[in-house]
Amino acid sequence: MTHVPKQKIAFITGGNRGIGFETARQLGQAGALPVIGARSEQAGREAVEQLRADGIAAQWLLFDVTRYADHQRAYDHFHALAGRLDILVNNAGVYLEGETGVKDLYNAADVPEAVLRQTMEANFFAPVLLTQTLLPLLQRSAAGRIVNLSSILASLTLHRDPSSPIYSANSVAYDTSKTALNGYTVHLAKALAGTPVKANAAHPGWVQTSMGGSAAPMAVADGARTSVQLALLPDDGPSGGFFHLGEVLPW
């Protein structure tokens, strides 16, 4: 290591567009060094150039969360950069069941196996395994923070409530993948109890992105706020929770 950045180092998977990019921007504005995980060199370079145009120093890393060799490459990158990682935002994910909030292509009786497996791979197994790979670097941080991008659609409580806004949602693969990620978040926080590392799940809101769809009511800037809040929690902040804009959501 030649020059170790003094500011917080944040890795945002899927950070070249949408909520991930805005999360990188807001973390950069807060003084962190955002490192964007992007699946192509062009996407990564363009994202960094956009941030630099806004006066934010940033980096990019060729990274596909479902390509497990990339997990070790990410570890090697941050180990060489600083010997630590301060913030991990598990932002990358997929939605393969139509347009969010508009029409579900399948329900629990007919969702294809391929959709289930691809969704669970990207939204659950990949972020869990990445977290395990990078955890030694997060444990070297004075205030490690793990943010798992979840969704209100993960809430079993709300799915069972006929009066809730998500009662009619039937995107079983996506919803179940995020419920599983919530479960991992709880167990991870328990495993990290008594250490400086905190892990929480974030519901960004229904946001106007390629995944969120045209009917979404929230702007991307607002959709990133929960991730940023959880990434910058103070020492006395919560761990093992499920939040949206500072409010606790039901499991």
UniProtKB/TrEMBL annotation:
PANTHER family given in the database record: (+)-NEOMENTHOL DEHYDROGENASE, SHORT-CHAIN DEHYDROGENASE_REDUCTASE
Organism for this UniProt entry: Duganella aquatilis
GO MF terms, alphabetically ordered: oxidoreductase activity, acting on the CH-OH group of donors, NAD or NADP as acceptor
Protein name in UniProt: SDR family NAD(P)-dependent oxidoreductase
Keywords for the protein's UniProt record, in alphabetical order: NADP, Oxidoreductase
Keyword Cell membrane in annotation: no
Family statement drawn from the similarity comment of this UniProt entry: Belongs to the short-chain dehydrogenases/reductases (SDR) family.
One Pfam family hit: adh_short
